[in-house]
Specification:
The protein has a two-stranded antiparallel ribbon with strand order 1-2. The protein starts with 5 loop residues before the first helix and ends in a 14-residue tail after the last helix. It contains 10 helices and 2 strands. By secondary structure, it is mainly α.
Length: 291
């Protein structure tokens, strides 16, 4: 298999991310529907006793030393760590890069399908009566973001704030963790592989950007993406082979002089041709035959 080229990979990743970002904007959904989905998720978790968002959000709200770093982590790490892992794999683990990249992209596009089919209001945008505080808005004076998610001030309108289900913050972090655990060397890399997705999950819940079930769905999307990756790679390989190596039209058939129906010929080397044109010693006439 050919080694991936950095310029082709950059273009492909940029194209997929542009489609992902544009798709998020097109799949905003209406507010009433998104709020209804968010409340349905919250009530389901409460019936299960699994609404971990409430205690974590209260903790991050009451303790700025936790809430402010969590906001910075939410607003930046997935934009920094994920590309860094991709570059590391490209440079240090090229044999595994293509499969890893395909897994990440496949899962990301599956997440976009989730945003489209199930627009969901995050906990921070629910009515305050439900007990959530938007820590991004509360601590916005400390960062570059405003009151609209993690977007820079003035650009909140360019984001889809109802893209909570599934949580690709958690999904991408899980992918990064798997890469570090599988291909990292030493206990520090494996520890980071375990810690990063766990810390990310706590961050998205504590900042009230996601429900616990959003995080579960993010992990499920990554799992489905992993299962689909071999099929995507196989299809891409067939397409690449078709484009790069089109079949010979004649299928190797040649017509010799005096033949009306072409016959299949094997490829001949120059040595084969010279041997074919060399006279057969058994057919040579002796001097006595000449009359």
């Amino acid at each position: 298999m050919d080694k991936p080229r950095w310029w082709a990979e950059s273009a492909l990743i940029g194209l997929v991310y542009a489609a992902y970002s544009g798709g998020r904007l097109l799949a905003r959904g209406d507010e009433a529907t998104a709020v209804g989905h968010g409340l349905a998720i919250l009530r389901f978790e409460e019936r299960l006793g699994a609404d971990a968002e409430h205690p974590l959000n209260r903790l991050f709200t009451d303790v700025p030393a936790l809430g402010i770093p969590a906001d910075f982590a939410y607003a930046s790490l997935h934009y920094l760590v994920t590309p860094a892992i991709l570059v590391w794999l490209f440079r240090r683990r090229p044999a595994h890069y293509r499969a890893a990249r395909t897994w990440l992209m496949t899962a990301t596009l599956l997440g976009l399908v989730g945003f489209t089919l199930l627009p969901t209001c995050p906990p921070r945008l629910l009515d305050p009566v439900y007990g959530f505080t938007d820590t991004m808005a509360r601590y916005s004076a400390y960062g570059w973001w405003g009151g609209e998610a993690s977007a820079p001030r003035g650009l909140g309108g360019l984001t889809n704030q109802f893209a909570a289900m599934p949580s690709l913050h958690v999904g991408w972090a899980l992918w990064c963790g798997a890469m570090l655990w599988r291909y990292g060397r030493g206990p520090a890399a494996k520890a980071a592989g375990l810690a990063y997705p766990l810390v990310t999950t706590v961050v998205v819940l504590g900042t009230a950007n996601h429900y616990l079930l959003d995080a579960v769905a993010g992990a499920a999307v990554m799992g489905l993406g992993l299962l689909l990756t071999p099929y995507v790679l196989r299809g891409a390989g067939r397409l690449r082979g078709t484009v790069e190596a089109p079949p010979v039209v004649s299928a190797g058939c040649e017509t010799s002089a005096g033949e009306r129906i072409p016959g299949q010929r094997s490829a001949r080397t120059p040595a084969d041709t010279s041997a074919r044109n060399r006279p057969d010693p058994s057919q040579a006439k002796s001097p006595g035959d000449a009359r």
